[in-house]
Amino acid sequence: MAVVLPALVALLGLLLAGATAGVLQLQLEKAAQAAVRQLGRGETEGRAAATVRAIAGDAVHLSAGTAGGWVTVRVAAPVPGPWGLLAGWTLAAEATAPAELSGSGTAMVGDGRP
Questions:
Q1: Of 56, 50, 61, nearest to 20 (Cα)?
Q2: Which of 10, 25, 48, 110 sits in a 20 to 30 Å window from 85, CA-based?
């Protein structure tokens, strides 16, 4: 019984770290989607970064770029807790959306035909 207890504690720790990482991954995905929508509408990167921090926390790093009429956002954050610190465990999420035409307020979808 004395050998089983430490193994159970270690297993519980791994399960909790996995659950924490799963929750963080979902937050990162929501944050990336929200930020790409904002940047696609023409809002500033500062506002998008504030939204990302509000959804996924202060440790999140945002990078964004545009190419060919598309906006891409990547957010990354270290997994909180000792597992993230010891192993350098970082999670990331990426989202891409079309950029809206500046000044029109609407995005053009397809070739513009009805």
A1: 56
A2: 48
